[in-house]
Amino acid sequence: MNSTYLNAKCKGILRKLLNNNSYLSLQQLAEELNISQRSIYYDVCRINEWLSENDIPELRVVRGKGLLLSEQIRIQIAECMEEKNTEEAYVYSPMERVQIIICSIIYSKEPVHVDVLADYCKVSRNSVFNDLRVVVKQLQNYDLELEYRSKKGYIIVGNEVKVRAVFLLNYQELKKTFTRDGMKFIDWEKVDAYEETLKKVEQDLGVEYVSDNRESLVVLLPIMEQGKQRIYFDDLKIEEIKQRKEYYLIEKYFSQLNENEKIYLCIHLLGGRIATVSEDIFENTNNEMVYEITKALVTEFEKTACVIFDNKEDLERELFVHINSSLYRYQYGIQSLDMLNRDIIREYPDLFEITKIVSKYLENQIGLPIPDTEVAYLALHFGAHLPISNNKSDKIRVLIVCANGISTGNMLKREIMKMFPEAEVVGVEASSKIKNVQAVCELIVTTVAFKSVVPVVQVHPILTGRDKEVLARHLKKEEFMGKIKVDDLMKIIEPYIKGKVYDEIRESIEEYLFNCKKGMETEIRENYQDLKSVVDDLRVDIHDGKYMWTQALWETADYLIQNKSIESAYINSIISQIRYYGSYMFIMPRVILAHSKPEMGVNQLDCSIHFFREPVRFSDKDLANVVIVLAAIDQESHLKLLRDIITIFGEDSVVDEFLTCSTKTEILDKFQEVLRAAKKIQIE
Q1: What is the spatial order of strands in the sheet that 586-588 belongs to?
Q2: 527-553 burial by CB neighbour count: b if 16+ within 10 A, else e?
């Protein structure tokens, strides 16, 4: 009798391998399944035990390549998985059991007996008792307690808002691995009924919430219906909330909830991330203050990031919807349940850090701290609207289907257009709104499972390396790889090869060329984007004596002009902007970042930083000891350099330290010292 069973993660790995005809690295699998590489390693070991017990050759990781199934093994695994009922034989891991225990206790109307928990987890009572010790420790992190009610069972007590937050956090983790059958403690019929009701609310509001938010909310609704513990919020403006349309609709469709639960649900709706909105939502929202703050925030980003948005109004409207709802999350401590923020921070670190600086303006305006999770979504909105240059004709029409909201879809659009000039993105839509796709596009890129007569590529909301490779293969990959055509190479090779080897060689060449192209792009980016690679002793200087502000600009820009990085017209443009708009280019006290549009005379990315011991007067209030001239060739390639500049001059006191330097070498050494210190703090 076999003793090893395939859990959902193991089956997920095997399905990926079964559906892939090229090598998959452990890192790629980890990204695809949103788990750690260490977890992949353990899962592969478990898979190999299962394969061995079923007389199937074990998986072998090829160094530098990864995993690839032969056709024979592929057939054997598929037949074995179909033959055996692996769902019923599933064995929960200790962490999965802890998550099930927490969720089932919170979800239940009554205390939960240890025998019930053992049944849910498919283990003995003793195993459950061991798991409960872990549960106690985890709950302590949230100031919650596990209590035992004599002869009845276990309950979780503490602040009810935190209790539900813990439920949702654990539910979100369970959902990654299990279908509904793996979470038997939830009344799914009731959940489905609530979802249909919530869709009516969305219809009446003229919005569509992000699918993850909606799903989490309908799972919470049975708990709200119980009303076991009183919900309480500090400084809750109840009367203000009751005036909202959301509350009116809750009273209409969820009349069975008590008043406190109606308010709790209303706050969730007000703070929920919106995927799509109707045009009249702006007319029905009277929050002019938030809209003005939003417009100022966009201007602040433009100033700080040295960019100019072409579609500023669209960005302002999208940000307004996001911030207007986010205010309720900030105020009442409701955490965003969408886990994309981690991917955003990882994939766009420079954009995230600059947005974090800009968010200080928002914090000052609303008087509330902005958590990193929310900064990440603000960064996604800004990034999605950064202009890209795209002049190619005869494009492949691509439709993006996304369930994660406007900003995510627009960011996907931007990334695809940037990476693949041959692609024309014809729209960003929800799957429910797609009709007659064959008349609209030749390829669908989707973040959700989607069937169509048109070829479909499913990707993560934030593109992984693997996603980009798959897209490259669909979007005229030869053009993406460069001038070398795979077909031409194969014509040369074909006389010397036979049978199936042909496809394997072709696949290897495609992967090699793609990686070469990717490597070259990475190398180029790394060569010019950060401060260390751009700013040298020719681009820094320190001055004594008194300078007019125009003189200081020309002095700072002198080498850039000599180096032909910029034309003189570029400095004239900066001077004209300052004269017309005032000294808005100050990024911090005593530091001005002078810049203009790339088309005003920029030939290549470059930067010069000059220090003036005698402050340079740009206005009655604005005096500069540091004058920086930045020449950006586009709206993105300078962001890493800009991030370094902001890091260096983030503290006002550092300016005084630079003014004590007597040589250019000291200045450059000081740059590196500050950057190393900042990096160390981030790591710690």
Answers
A1: 540-543, 606-617, 623-631, 591-594, 586-588
A2: ebbbbeebbeeebbbbbeeebebbebb
Dump pLDDT digits (tens) for 289-318: 778 888 888 888 888 888 888 778 888 888
Whether the full predicted model's pTM is greater than 0.70, yes or no, is: no
Distance CA 630, CA 607 (A): 5
Give the pLDDT mean for 389-401.
68
Distance from C-alpha of 29 to C-alpha of 9, rounded to nearest angstrom: 11
Cα angle for residues 350, 355, 356 (degrees, 5° grid): 100
Q: Which two tokens stand for residue 137?
A: 């420790």
Tokens of 221: 């609704």
Helices (H), 70-156: 71-83, 94-107, 114-121, 125-140
Q: How far apart are CA 628 and CA 612, in angstroms?
A: 11
CA dihedral angle for residue 503, residue 504, residue 507, residue 512, rounded to 10 degrees: -140
Q: Token pair for residue 167?
A: 């439920």
The encoded tokens of residue 599 equal 């088309």
Query: What is the reported pLDDT for 101?
Result: 93
pLDDT of residue 383: 85
Task: Tell me what pLDDT residue 482 has.
Answer: 46
The DSSP bridge pattern shows strands 274-277 and 207-209 to be antiparallel
What does residue 257 show for φ and ψ, rounded to 5 degrees?
-75, 145
Sign, Cα dihedral of 439, 444, 446, 449: positive
Q: How confident is the model at residue 570 (pLDDT cuts 50, 70, 90)?
A: very high
Q: Is the pLDDT reported for residue 435 higher than 70?
A: no
The pairing of beta strand 145-149 with beta strand 153-157 = antiparallel
> Which of 565, 585, 563 lies closest to 574, judged by CA?
585
Residue 204 has a CB neighbour count (10 Å cut-off) of: 14
Label residue 628 by pLDDT band (50, 70, 90). Answer: very high
Q: Would you mind telling me the total number of residues written for the chain in this entry?
A: 684
The token pair at 482 is 């460069």
Q: How far is CA 103 from CA 172, 174, 426, in A?
A: 10, 9, 42
* Torsion sign across C-alpha atoms 121, 123, 124, 130: negative
The dihedral of CA 121, 122, 127, 129: what is its sign?
positive
Phi, psi of 172 (to 5 degrees): -60, -40
Q: CA 594 to CA 642: how far, in whole Å? A: 12
Q: What mean pLDDT do residues 184-213 have?
A: 84
Q: How far apart are CA 543 and CA 166, in angstroms?
A: 58
Q: What number of other Cβ atoms are within 10 A of residue 449's Cβ?
A: 10
CA angle at residue 663 from 660 to 667, to 5 degrees? Answer: 70
d(C-alpha 283, C-alpha 326), whole Å: 19
Residue from 144, 114, 140, 142 nearest 129 by CA: 114
Closest residue by Cα to residue 386 from 443, 348, 430: 348
Residue 230: strand pairing partners: none
Task: Give the residue-averaged pLDDT of 639-661.
Answer: 87
Pick 360 or 233 by higher pLDDT. Answer: 360
Q: Tell which wins on pLDDT, 503 or 519.
A: 503
Side chain identity, residue 499: G
Q: What are phi and psi of 645, to 5 degrees?
A: -60, -45
Mean pLDDT of the chain: 79
